[in-house]
Design goal:
Blueprint lengths: L1 H15 L2 E3 L5 E3 L20 E3 L3 E2 L15 E3 L9 E7 L13 E10 L2 H5 L5 E8 L13 E9 L24 H7 L4 E10 L2
Antiparallel strand pairs: 1-2, 3-4, 3-5, 6-7, 6-9, 7-8, 9-10
The structure holds 2-acetamido-2-deoxy-beta-D-glucopyranose (3 copies).
One 2-acetamido-2-deoxy-beta-D-glucopyranose binds next to loops.
């Protein structure tokens, strides 16, 4: 009887889990998919970055089919122009959210600073790139996998720290895979997460 109950509760869990289905019918649930490791809480609107490709993007929007070749414009209304921030964009769901064996893929990393005071007073606060040390590369998940999440994180930089570049800054493209985000945060003392954003994309 107990076994039956366990079986039934498992069935219910599977049926009620959010199904991730790809265009090729590949299926997994978020339950089976690794837990969201660096989760973005889209309800915290005061901490959301504003991301513009050709149009404004909303947090968690599915941008499948859009041309994301060029880096977006990113802005943040709470920035202080005296501060330096580090913007990072990662894919936690490579090669597929069902089996994120390449986690993380790093898509972009740059020092940014809020636009100058004039801009700020005009109500716009685009983040200006001051040093792009990992060039932007648009989403390019394997064809047919369920949508990947693309996550942006903005950290306040502690000026006394010298950035310890991750080892992959050579020319080997494949080394964008397996980016050790936790280690990168630790060695660079990225402790002040200020804002974030996430969209989804599949091919
Ligand atoms: C996407 O945009 C880039 C840059 O504007 C352009 O070079 C490229 O041809 C576009 N790709 C498609 C499939 O439209
Ligand atoms: C500040 O922003 C304004 C508005 O775009 C621009 O005209 C001006 O050149 C900028 N000043 C500096 C120092 O970047
Ligand atoms: C990395 O990728 C770029 C663009 O796809 C390509 O031009 C370049 O040759 C690649 N570099 C290496 C070392 O594979």
């Amino acid at each position: 009887m107990a076994e039956l109950l366990v079986l039934v509760s498992r069935l219910v869990l599977v049926l009620t889990s959010c199904l991730l289905v790809s265009s090729y019918g590949q299926t997994c649930t978020w339950h089976e998919a690794a837990v969201p490791v660096a989760s973005v809480e889209c309800r915290h609107t005061s901490s959301l970055l504003t991301v513009h490709y050709d149009t404004a993007v909303t947090c968690e929007q599915d941008l499948s089919g859009k041309n994301l070749t060029n880096a977006p414009t990113v802005s943040w209304r709470n920035g202080h122009s005296a501060d330096i921030y580090l913007l990072i964009m990662i894919d936690p769901d490579a090669s597929t959210p069902c089996k994120p064996d390449l986690r993380y893929v790093i898509h972009w990393a740059a020092f940014v600073s809020p636009s100058n005071v004039t801009y700020f007073l005009q109500g716009s606060n685009d983040l200006r790139i001051t040093d792009e040390f990992i060039s932007y590369r648009g989403p390019h998940p394997p064809e047919g996998t369920p949508p990947h999440r693309y996550q942006f994180f903005l950290y306040r930089w502690v000026p006394e720290i010298t950035l310890l570049h991750p080892t992959f800054l050579g020319n080997d493209n494949s080394s964008r895979f397996h980016f050790d985000y936790d280690q990168f945060k630790a060695v660079n003392r990225l402790e002040h997460l200020e804002a974030f954003f996430e969209f989804q994309y599949s091919r």
